């Protein structure tokens, strides 16, 4: 039987009259409030096809349920009494994002309004899948207690894993995560945690986090490069994640053949190079925190991957035509800048005029973007 996390949502979060958490019109208004902080109630009608009466009725219903709150009036907008501003009520619900990488599992607790309540991590190395999940559950309980988060406000879990989608909630993950691969993660995790679980690719949740908390606040079309043990990414078009026909849009490593794949910008390959040069780098997490561009082997590795990297950047430019390409995942900012400095765009100007080029931007999300995107996934899937 297919797995649908929506079927496991606690009754307290469901609408009284019909199935689901919110109606289509309510969802549209919640998305509008998210995208336009400080929007006043009187301004909403101009952004929708609904009448002012319908807008006010829907907002009042959402406020009665505790999903929307009213802020200080915005003066000088419309006629009559100043209209209150609208906000999502974070205290209505919270979620947990879990991001499984090859060396660490990131955790992020987030409320409905997108506020990060807590962040943590669990070391994955030399742990079985069962041991890792036990540690995650313990860490989650610790954070809930520490932050005073009540169980009845726990809406659900977003789960992100490195690897590509092979159908359902099965992912083909890198070799260090072989135990997590090719199994139905959704029902397994839902039973383990006792909550609905939305399962996604980790690079995609990183792209979602970037779209909602990073450059996506002012750029709506961008490609997200996720540098991790392997190398992948995500595509954001008009603020929304593009999944493709099989859920694997953004699997950038797929353009390389077997020989070229050894020269793609995967961080595990850099770690192997550093270890051969006598630099003890035990994990990608360690490298991100302690990266030194003067380590022996760094410059040589960047020079070696530059042709493959440049071909990818130009392929993204030609096929997707983004406004920006964002360097994210677990890449150290210094390493990202080295790649940006070596970028060559293959555009051939016609009549002296070239195509608009994407900006190359280093992500400013310093924490685990994949875990952040996983945390907001349950709310994006149901509320906005």
What does it look like?
Helices cover 35% and strands 21% of the residues. By secondary structure, the protein is α/β, with parallel strands linked by helices. The protein has a five-stranded mixed β-sheet with strand order 5-4-3-6-9. Helix 6 (202-213) packs across helix 11 (369-382). 40% of the residues are buried. The model has no long low-confidence stretch (mean pLDDT 95).
Short description:
The chain has 384 residues and is α/β, with parallel strands linked by helices. It contains 11 helices and 14 strands.
- The chain-level structural class is alpha/beta
CATH superfamily of the largest domain: ATPase, nucleotide binding domain
- The overall strand count is 14
Total domain units: 3
The overall pLDDT average reads 95
H/E series: HHHEEEEEHEEEHEHEEEHHHEHEH
Question: Any idea of the CATH topology of the largest domain?
Answer: Nucleotidyltransferase, domain 5
Protein name: ROK family transcriptional regulator
Organism: Rhizobium sullae (Rhizobium hedysari)
GO molecular function, one term: N-acylmannosamine kinase activity
Keywords: Plasmid
């Amino acid at each position: 039987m297919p797995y649908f996390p929506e079927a496991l949502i606690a009754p307290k979060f469901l609408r009284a009259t019909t199935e689901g958490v919110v109606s289509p019109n309510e969802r549209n208004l919640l998305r509008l409030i998210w995208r336009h902080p400080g929007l006043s109630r009187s301004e909403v009608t101009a952004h929708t096809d609904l009448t002012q009466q319908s807008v006010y009725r829907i907002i009042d219903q959402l406020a009665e349920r505790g999903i929307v709150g009213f802020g200080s009036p915005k003066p000088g907008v419309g006629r009559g009494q100043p209209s209150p501003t609208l906000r999502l009520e974070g205290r209505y619900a919270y979620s947990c994002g879990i991001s499984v990488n090859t060396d660490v599992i990131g955790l992020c607790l987030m409320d409905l309004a997108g506020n990060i309540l807590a962040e943590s991590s669990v070391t994955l190395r030399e742990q079985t899948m069962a041991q890792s999940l036990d540690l995650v559950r313990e860490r989650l309980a610790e954070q809930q207690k520490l932050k005073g988060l009540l169980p009845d406000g726990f809406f659900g879990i977003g789960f992100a894993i490195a690897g590509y989608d092979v159908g359902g909630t099965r992912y083909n993950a890198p070799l260090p995560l072989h135990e997590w691969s090719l199994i139905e993660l959704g029902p397994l995790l839902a039973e383990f945690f006792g909550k609905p679980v939305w399962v996604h690719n980790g690079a995609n949740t990183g792209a979602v986090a970037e779209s909602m908390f990073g450059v996506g606040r002012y750029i709506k079309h961008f490609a997200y490069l996720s540098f991790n043990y392997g190398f992948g990414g995500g595509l954001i078009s008009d603020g929304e994640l593009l999944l493709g026909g099989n859920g694997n849009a953004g699997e950038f490593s797929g353009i390389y053949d077997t020989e070229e794949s050894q020269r793609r910008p995967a961080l595990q390959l850099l770690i192997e190079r550093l270890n051969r040069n006598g630099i003890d780098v035990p994990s990608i997490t360690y490298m991100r925190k302690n990266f030194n561009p003067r380590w022996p082997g760094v410059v040589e590795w960047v020079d070696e991957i530059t042709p493959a990297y440049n071909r990818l950047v130009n392929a993204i430019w030609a096929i997707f035509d983004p406004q920006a390409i964002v360097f994210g995942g677990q890449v150290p900012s210094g390493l990202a800048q080295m790649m940006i400095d070596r970028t060559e765009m293959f555009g051939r100007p016609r009549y002296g005029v070239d195509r608009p080029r994407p900006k190359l931007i280093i992500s400013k999300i310093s924490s685990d973007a994949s875990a952040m995107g996983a945390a907001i996934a349950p709310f994006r899937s149901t509320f906005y």
